């Protein structure tokens, strides 16, 4: 009663392997992130598609280089 150590005849329970423990912790963290990301969202698939589309557009803008001389102001002046 109230002992902190196992009885001399009993062996301590085996501790999980360090790699196994890390894998379980990483899996739990990933699951929590997914749950938090989808909290309050009714259609997770549409949100994911919108995010991918936005990333694709941002990537196209980044790879297209600098805007032409004058940018949008030049286009607005012709309107």
Automatic annotation (TrEMBL):
Residues 1-79 are annotated as: Disordered. Transmembrane segments: none annotated. It comes from the Eukaryota. Pfam families: SVIP. Keywords: Lipoprotein, Myristate, Palmitate. The gene is SVIP. The keyword Lipoprotein applies. Residues 18-37, 45-59 have a biased composition (Basic and acidic residues). This is Small VCP interacting protein.
